[in-house]
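yo

u said u wanted the structure for the complex thing, so here. seqs first:
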Amino acid sequence: MELNATTIPLLFFVFVLAMFLGVELIKKVPSQLHTPLMSGSNAISGITIVGALIASSREGGTAIATLLAVLAVAFATINVVGGYLVTDRMLEMFKTKAKDGGKP
Amino acid sequence: MNPELLRGLFYIVASIFFIFGLKMLSSQATARRGNLVSAVGMLIAVVTTLTAMEDIRWFWIVFGAGLGCVVGVLAARLVKMTAMPEMVGLFNGFGGLASLLVGWSEYHGKWAVADPVSLFTTVAIFLTVLIGAVTFSGSLVAYGKLSALIEGRPILYKRQNLVNAFVLGAIAALGVLFCAQKLDQLSGGGYALVYLELIAIVVLALVLGVLSTIPIGGADMPVVICLLNSYSGLAACAAGFVIGNNVLIVSGSLVGASGLILTRIMCKAMNRSLANVLFSGFGSATSAKAAGYQGQANPIAASDAYLILEAARNVVFVPGYGMAAAQAQHVVRELGELLGNNGAEVRYCIHPVAGRMPGHMNVLLAEANVPYEMLVEPQDVNPTMGTVDVAIVIGANDVVNPAAKEDQASPLWGMPIIEVDRAQTCIVLKRSLNPGFAGVDNPLFFKSNTRMLFGDAKASVAAMVSEFKQ
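structre next:
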């Protein structure tokens, strides 16, 4: 998105609304789910992978800029892949009595 | 349809997936699907981004992402459940590092061609680099503390807050210099200098992350992990402002806000302010010269503990970090089942800050197949604590310390606790009478209805289990 006097306030608008939304979404989480919630939201913060991908292929980008971006892709991928898998592994264990006998 | 418009719409779809994913994560029944929904959102965002890019450097992207996948999958599969807090901390640090590198790479690209970059973008780059670096080095320190690679106790020195303030001031001053310069109007010397300023900001921010995390004790780690989680979201959000991308801003701020809320919940559970957690070095040797309770502790053998348990009709387990350290969750579940078969009502009461990560005990007990319904919160148990026959405290200390209610001079004063001292009998499994991570003596150990079962938690519980089986 091109940054100018029209788009910049829009970005802030989105930012403020999303902050409020985040607060509302998480407000009533039972403490049993704090860990998966944290590690799940941690995986979402790996969204920076989008920025890393864009930076890795900037036209006319220098070698150093590309190298930094590729490192960013690698670390963001660890965050995303590891974060989602670990959360899934945890949630797989959170069973209720009724389901205990069946396959998870 | 205009491809740019289409991509914008797909980014909105990805954001909706993230929002629903988070919403579903906050309820037990839907949590696992919620995580999947949010992962699909991530996939949509990544694929949409790839379609938007011209001249993709596939080799490098596949190389970087492939490497990340291998490491991520291995780490997520191989990590032990007891090591979960440090693994989450580490992943979080990598997210911060990635944002730092994105900001740096963007700047380098603009710097190399003397792009007339706007003040807005330089400020956003500054914030991305700063928050990303603090998240990264702070998370590494948290990882070190949680995995016992470095001292878990607060590391304090003279004029600590002054040093931190100085580093922060230096970063702010460099930040103003860095943001004020226009790349296309700089001459040779100034042109090199502005890049050096960026490097100096990165280095100082890394130092700040370390300095602000080392004075925080092991028992306060749940708060720090939540806070760092929030930072990594804000770093991604700042990166979104750098490249003008809405999906980064939305998901980054969702994570930022949820991390802050969790931080607040953790602080409330300890009856302390965030500032107190971050700056007081609570639980250090210097600040914990508390009462020094005197009295006679009543030791008990596993065989006698068994006799008490056999007669009990209502039992509450109170696990703490000691259960995680001893990896005792499986034998604890076994003992719980035996007690249940013996006709007792068994519950597991979990304090919000027990362990080293929010919900740490829940994860361990879930791993050991304890049904979700048997896990209860302190406010569910405390009002009827008088009717509980036996409360078994397994490696928990500060969260059951009655000084929080009885002793106004105690550093724990006012913290909501699990009131096991009001149970008919309280059996405390512990290695010794040493104080917990907060370094505060626990008068619970000297109460007349308390029995101390000394030794390794796993061995002690296993001994009671074998008594039951005989």
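Chain B touches chain A through 114 residues (CB under 8 Å). Residues 283-291 of chain B have pLDDT under 50 and may be disordered.
cya
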